[in-house]
Amino acid sequence: MKNSGSSNLIPVYIPTALQRFVGQQETLKLSGATVKEVLDQLVGQYPELKQHLYAADGQLRSFVNLFINDDDIRTRQGLQTPVSEKDALTIVPSIAGGSLEPGAADSVTLSNDEVKRYSRHLIMPEVGVQGQKKIKAASVLLIGTGGLGSPLGLYLTSAGVGKIGLVDFDVVDFTNLQRQVLYTTEDVGKPKIAAAKARLQAINPYITIETHEARLSSENAMDIIKDYDIVIDGTDNFPTRYLVNDACVLLGKPNVYGSIFRFEGQASVFDAKKGPCYRCLYPEPPPPGLVPSCAEGGVLGILPGIVGTIQATEAIKIILGNGEPLIGRLLLFNAMKMKFRELKLRKNPTCPLCGPNPTITKLIDYEQFCGITRGGEAAAEQENQSWEITAKELKQRMDSNKALKLIDVREPHEFDICSIGGAKLMPLGQFAQRMGELDSADEIVLHCHHGMRSMRALELLRSAGFKKIKSLHGGIDAWADDIEPGMAKY
Ligand SMILES: [Zn+2]
């Protein structure tokens, strides 16, 4: 050995993930004339490291990159690249966005049945046996098992993600079936989480499905999220969205984001270690009531299928440590135009959560943050009550006062689904302009689908001096339940 006994000491930088195998050291000084000689000395001194750097056939593992100064050794002479004391050797394991333990896939094996099941992955060099083992070693948490959670659950289960966690507390409803493809008509009335687990486990018995039947809250979020590599946000409300973001930043987990509304979708990957978080993008939530929910605004049934599969794709890419993730990019999709657009997202240097001087260091009260104060809601409800009328009361008044004016403030396409006999259509959007058609001397009852829009119309009439006005509590939905059981509900 030409180098033996020489003082040719090379600094070797050990990545955080591997430091536990070298007594928590960050830098080692080792001798050798080539990269191979330095590595031989390294694994000679720390034998536990060997299985993390080399595969069984003695080849350097594909997810371990070695750099001499700024150069990947593959662009030089590989393991035979010469080194001198002026050089530094850096070990860079290219792993799942930093979220997977290096070597976690090594302790995983694929049975013959699994090899057959995943063969179309295994024959792709971008996945291969190593990639499929990474997928099996990975754990992914799905927050929500609704529109987005359905395609996410189906594809990640089929792809063989080893552990899938489901968080939901809802029950399957008839109105879910138009887009939540995890569920069948027979599942209506069952807890989503039980129906989802049964369906997913039937698709792939080789994976573990963990269920968390709970509403994600500041109290349980850290505890649930900490056991997973990747979190996927499939929620539909702002308090949970901020809660998921904050918990992921505090725990250092990538958060695969998706949102849907009518025919438009958004997707991104928030990983504060490498890019912006959700708070960098939206520091403050919109005021409550400004952004309608899917229940109010509707959603094209196919849209969550598209956005959810984009999220599933991002999750698999993070697990494989392959491709260009949506970190720092916001993908916008419009189904009507069938167009994708992309926006660059930058980390906000003053972000209160992921910036250098964070003011948010633990989870907060997200309902309050989003302006949904329970006390405020109760007070508003009490105030509303004095202006509301029940379906039964309305029926009595209509029977006794034929001159009563019933005004439907829904949209024409909703009126086509169902309407109350004698109601006049005045959609909320035109209400301010058309108020002149009403007479303040008349007894007026306003109604909509669930009772929200009619309260807004009532406010307009109140501020115009109308007094004999009421809003139907629970809207036409309550009317169908209590007065006209044969009426179509939507
Ligand atoms: Zn941030």
Could you explain the architecture of this structure?
It is built from 19 helices and 18 strands. The chain has helices at 35-45, 50-53, 112-117, 119-122, 128-137, 149-159, 192-203, 221-225, 238-251, 278-281, 294-297, 303-320, 366-369, 374-385, 391-400, 412-415, 428-434, 453-463, 475-482; strands at residues 9-13, 27-31, 64-68, 71-72, 89-93, 139-143, 163-168, 208-213, 230-233, 255-261, 264-270, 329-334, 339-344, 388-389, 405-408, 424-425, 444-447, 469-472. It is elongated and about 100 Å long. Helix 6 (149-159) packs parallel to helix 12. It has three domains: 9-94, Beta-grasp domain (Ubiquitin-like (UB roll), Roll), CATH 3.10.20.30; 104-372, Rossmann fold; 376-482, Oxidized Rhodanese, domain 1, CATH 3.40.250. Strands 8-7-6-9-10-11-12-13 form an eight-stranded mixed beta sheet, sandwiched between helices. Strands 2-1-5-3-4 form a five-stranded mixed beta sheet, with helices on one face. A five-stranded parallel beta sheet has the order 14-18-17-15-16. The longest helix has 18 residues, at 303-320. It is of the alpha/beta class and 490 residues long. It binds zinc ion (ZN). Zinc ion (ZN) is lined by residues 272, 276-277, 279-280, 348, 351, 353-354.
